[in-house]
């Protein structure tokens, strides 16, 4: 018997899982038993491989063909195979069958849409599992490979397959919403690779714009607020407020209202909400309105010689002008909120007006009083009249802040503050302008016209006095006659003046080219009355004397 020899032996093969493979084994002239050995273990005797349904021995047995056919190669087929001729004591060279396993379809965590908040970086993770050999992963965007990804491999329990994980980091500035990013995994089993993709969805708080129309606007007109917003996810709520107070009756993106001055200082806000949160935006309205009092000035009562400071603040739009003046005077004292009067005198007392003007819009004013604390001031007619035999009165008008503590009438050796003494009665009445003290005399006698009457008032700041004389009043018939005569004289003067003016007018019409060389010069001749001057000096001396003497006289006060 000729010695048997292998004409075909199995070779090392690489095959992708799932494909068929044939390991050749031919021993011409050998008719004995042939065994296939896998990793040192016999698969069966002869052509009986019933324990391995996918395994079949094929070929012409008579020609010595004993090929091993494997259907749908699996990972477990990754082994070393031998073909042995038992009776001939021959074995083939070992043949390594390498099984390649493609990775499972790659998966990007969080796909197919990956959402993130604006301003956050993007971290994408792609898995390519159960591959042999381990899969390689690349990232692609807009046809370009993205570099910088990190990789890791994990060997599975079977010791053959591996899983690959790739993590891609992108900064906020390097991503845009709507972009598509691809993860592509490949190994020798799938050289063209497998891929999956995700779409980037950048979510953000509402981006809000608040428009106000029209601007500027006059108080009392209609204004429309429109709140336009871009948001991802979409807007779920609009909320309006004015000056921090919620406007409950408005819920959409538009708010219409008749505006007043408050919209100038109290902004209108629109708050837009989506699932990520809220964005609030506020706008003031450029409302034109007339002056409105912001700080109301207060009336003042100050001591003589002190400073008086008034504060008056207005609001208005456009910018307003403030003017301080004293009532009855056209002199502007200040254009500021503050009016300061230095070292006030009694003549500074009175009404002061703070006036504000908004050009072409409106004006407003506020009046306050300045009261000056000081000694009383008496202003009375120094000569007053009465009829002989009738009841007569002398009045003394006193301005005093604070009010007078004491008012006294004195004549000869009598001092009377109130009540009645003989023919004399003193009554005091307080009015808005001041205090009026009246000395009433019943049955006027000639001596009353020769008497000097003194009215003196005191308060905590000092005193003032006035000397008053009583003059006999002429009887009514004489007065009437004089009145008629004076009236007739005045009428005559008026008539003559009218005739003279008429004549002058006619004369001027007949004179042409005559021009006055100078304006008329008015000359006033003053006759100085030396006797009157002497009386004024005596009057002043008498007042000073009475102020000194009255406090020293006993207080003769008669109560009615």
Automatic annotation (TrEMBL):
GO cellular component: cell-cell junction; plasma membrane
Coiled coil: none
Any one biological process term the GO annotation gives: synapse assembly
Stored SUPFAM superfamilies: Immunoglobulin
Assigned keywords, A-Z: Cell membrane, Disulfide bond, Glycoprotein, Immunoglobulin domain, Membrane, Repeat, Signal, Transmembrane, Transmembrane helix
Entry annotated with the keyword Kinase: no
Transmembrane segments: 478-502
CDD domains (alphabetical): IgI_2_KIRREL3-like, IgI_5_KIRREL3
Membrane topology: Single-pass type I membrane protein
Major site of localization recorded for this protein: membrane
Domain Ig-like: 4-98, 103-199, 206-286, 291-371, 376-471
Gene3D superfamilies from the UniProt entry: Immunoglobulins (2.60.40.10)
InterPro entries given in the database record: CD80_C2-set (IPR013162), Cell_adhesion_signaling (IPR051275), Ig-like_dom (IPR007110), Ig-like_dom_sf (IPR036179), Ig-like_fold (IPR013783), Ig_I-set (IPR013098), Ig_sub (IPR003599), Ig_sub2 (IPR003598)
GO molecular function: cell adhesion molecule binding
One protein family per Pfam: I-set
Compartments in which it is found: Cell membrane
Stated family: Belongs to the immunoglobulin superfamily.
Protein name: Kirre like nephrin family adhesion molecule 3
Organism: Lates calcarifer
